């Protein structure tokens, strides 16, 4: 692991974690939600590097959230680490089940099939009145290895937890993107035929990226559910998945920090435009995305790439 | 049968009413250099595509290394040692020349592509640059593919195909799209690299000067059939070949 990457991860951890001290409650919640969603978007960016975009990442966001909630409510488990692990494991298994199927598809077919799966979950959950139907379920505040904070300490602990997870996941994804497998993903995006004729399985590459996205989606959903204290089928609705795609496009596929920055920007733009233009906030969001696509077609991450390019 | 021998027996392939391969039988010995000639649509590329798994023949067998490789995926055939280059160079346009080579190197590494090993590690880069130097294109290593000439693209395509344990190399029109003054230098480089590695070569070519100069044996295709299979001089002086393939007077 490069020393630059470790230093960057530590700096990111310290800077982001400082928010637990300096941010007001509302901002801490907003950042925690943005970071949780950023995890989901990181998974989409992993797939984007291979040339496909999942329009159904809400499937894993919702699956993670419901897994944590059902385990907490049924078995009385409240430990955030255990809940996160269980949700990630469930999403890993579901990802492994759907990944090989989806890896046969490209472009709009991949996007629509992934969307269809998330909408099947949405429809199913909406009809299941025994787990709350469209109203969803509440989940109690988590504990941290036996520690049960309340009020601001709870919010700060949850915030630091998500920051830590995001920094670890971001570092691992950066390692993966820079690895031999990561380079194969970029090559696949460019020329699948060449990759196959060099002796690698494109399907295998696509499946791995999908499964990583599933796990990240599940972890993001778990944290979002714990931060909100509530889950409902809307977690799997197409607009939720669309939001993740919005962030992924805004960030581009070149940079990991850009994904987190884009997720935070989306939350800020949405919150403030909702406050100042309550009836037209979607319009503000749309104009913002349009401006970014025109000015930075490869997303915010291309700013870093350009700077590096100029240095060399 | 020796390990590196390619044996094609009674292979047939039709696309609807069009017969692309009819009773194709040929045995290519280890280390030989064969060229495939024929007009467009004669079945040369279909032959290459069937041997490399892109197209599945309707009938017949293709034996290599003691196995019938029909029905195997292209990547499995590549893993067995049958590599290929393409008529239109198949490269990754958003990557640099060196990165393209690194992709090939990563796939053929001892342990396969790793999740943790940095793709740009020193050893891999040294290997990639050594290969690029062997093909005389190392000076282009930091350039993106769209910036390259046709000749450099062809060389990179072949250099990538050479990665790993190549036993048979199929070159589909290695000099098409290349400036006429670059053709012989490119073929010299490629053939020297392949011969020094002991690789069996089968190349598709329209330029008879190249066929005569580099191949030991020529297969002339016409209408999905092999109409001549002999040494270059014999094949090129065959009246049927002159009539249907080269267009030269009998």
Protein architecture, described:
Chain B: Residues 6-248 form the ABC transporter domain. Chain B: InterPro entries: AAA+_ATPase (IPR003593), ABC_AA/LPS_Transport (IPR051120), ABC_transporter-like_ATP-bd (IPR003439), P-loop_NTPase (IPR027417). Chain B: One of its GO terms (molecular function) is L-phenylalanine transmembrane transporter activity. Chain B: Pfam families: ABC_tran (PF00005). Chain B: Keywords: ATP-binding, Nucleotide-binding, Transport. Chain A: Keywords: Cell membrane, Membrane, Transmembrane, Transmembrane helix. The complex is a heterodimer of chains A (312) and B (250). Chain A has 312 residues and is mainly α. Chain A has one domain. Chain A is built from 14 helices and 2 strands; from the N terminus they run ααααααβααααβαααα. Chain A has helices at 3-17, 19-22, 25-48, 58-75, 80-102, 107-127, 151-178, 180-190, 192-197, 202-228, 238-251, 256-276, 281-295, 301-311, and strands spanning 137-138, 230-231. In chain A, strands 1-2 form a two-stranded antiparallel ribbon. In chain A, α3 packs across α11 (238-251). The two termini of chain A are 22 Å apart. The model of chain A is unreliable at 307-312 (pLDDT under 50). With 250 residues, chain B is α/β, with parallel strands linked by helices. Chain B has one domain (6-246): P-loop containing nucleotide triphosphate hydrolases (Rossmann fold). Chain B contains 9 helices and 10 strands. Chain B has helices at residues 44-51, 74-80, 97-107, 122-134, 150-161, 180-196, 208-214, 232-236, 239-246; strands spanning 6-15, 18-28, 33-37, 59-64, 67-68, 82-85, 168-172, 200-204, 217-222, 225-230. In chain B, the strands form 2 sheets. Chain B has a 6-stranded mixed β-sheet with strand order 6-7-8-3-9-10, sandwiched between helices. Chain B has a 4-stranded antiparallel β-sheet with strand order 2-1-4-5, with helices on one face. In chain B, β9 and β10 form a beta hairpin. In chain B, α3 (97-107) crosses α4, α3 runs parallel beside α5 (150-161) and α5 runs parallel beside α6. The radius of gyration of chain B is 18 Å and the shape is globular. The termini of chain B are far apart. At the A-B interface, α7, α8 and α9 of A face α2 and α3 of B.
């Amino acid at each position: 692991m490069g020393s630059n990457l470790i230093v960057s991860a530590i700096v990111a951890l310290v800077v982001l974690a400082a928010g637990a001290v300096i941010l007001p409650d509302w901002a801490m919640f907003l950042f925690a939600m943005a970071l949780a969603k950023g995890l989901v978007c990181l998974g989409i960016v992993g797939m984007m590097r291979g040339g496909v975009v999942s329009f159904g990442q809400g499937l894993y966001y919702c699956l993670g959230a419901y897994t944590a909630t059902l385990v907490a409510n049924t078995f009385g488990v409240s430990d955030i680490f255990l809940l996160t692990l269980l949700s990630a494991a469930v999403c890993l298994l579901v990802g492994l089940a759907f990944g090989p199927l989806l890896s046969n598809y490209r472009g709009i077919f991949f996007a629509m099939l992934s969307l269809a799966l998330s909408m099947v979950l949405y429809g199913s959950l909406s009809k299941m009145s025994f787990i709350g139907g469209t109203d969803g379920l509440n989940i109690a505040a988590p504990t941290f290895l036996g520690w049960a904070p309340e009020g601001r300490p709870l919010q700060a602990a949850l915030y630091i937890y998500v920051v830590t997870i995001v920094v670890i996941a971001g570092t691992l994804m950066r390692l993966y993107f820079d690895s031999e497998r990561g380079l194969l993903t970029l090559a696949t995006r460019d020329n699948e035929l060449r990759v196959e004729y060099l002796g690698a399985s494109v399907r295998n590459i696509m499946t791995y990226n999908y499964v990583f996205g599933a796990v990240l989606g599940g972890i993001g959903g778990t944290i979002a559910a714990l931060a909100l204290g509530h889950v409902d089928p809307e977690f799997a609705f197409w607009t939720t998945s669309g939001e993740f795609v919005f962030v992924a496009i805004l960030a581009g596929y070149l940079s990991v920090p850009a994904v987190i920055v884009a997720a935070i920007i989306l939350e800020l733009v949405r919150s403030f435009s909702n406050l100042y233009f309550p009836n037209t906030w979607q319009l503000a969001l749309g104009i913002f995305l349009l401006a970014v696509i025109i000015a930075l077609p490869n997303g915010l991450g291309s700013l870093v790439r350009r700077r590096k390019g100029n240095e060399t | 049968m020796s390990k590196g021998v390619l044996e094609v027996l009674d292979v047939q392939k039709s696309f609807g009413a069009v017969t692309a391969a009819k009773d194709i039988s040929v045995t290519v010995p280890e280390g030989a250099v064969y060229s495939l000639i024929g007009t467009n649509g004669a079945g040369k590329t279909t032959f290459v595509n069937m041997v490399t798994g892109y197209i599945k023949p309707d009938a017949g067998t293709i034996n290599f290394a003691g196995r019938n490789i029909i029905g195997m995926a292209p990547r499995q055939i590549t893993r067995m040692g049958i590599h290929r280059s393409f008529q239109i160079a198949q490269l990754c346009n958003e990557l640099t020349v060196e990165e393209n080579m690194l992709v090939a190197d990563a796939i053929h590494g001892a342990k396969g592509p790793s999740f943790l090993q940095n793709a740009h590690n020193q050893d891999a880069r040294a290997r990639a640059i050594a290969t690029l130097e062997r093909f005389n294109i190392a000076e282009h290593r930091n350039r993106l593919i769209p910036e390259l000439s046709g000749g450099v693209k062809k060389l990179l395509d072949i250099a990538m195909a050479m990665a790993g344990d190549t036993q048979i190399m199929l070159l589909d029109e290695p000099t098409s799209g290349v400036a006429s003054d670059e053709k012989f230098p490119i073929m010299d480089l490629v053939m020297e690299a392949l011969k020094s590695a002991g690789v069996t070569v089968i190349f598709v070519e329209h330029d008879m000067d190249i066929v005569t100069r580099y191949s030991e044996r020529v297969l002339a295709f016409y209408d999905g059939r092999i109409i001549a299979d002999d040494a270059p001089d014999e094949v090129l002086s065959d009246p049927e070949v002159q009539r249907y393939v080269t267009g030269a007077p009998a």
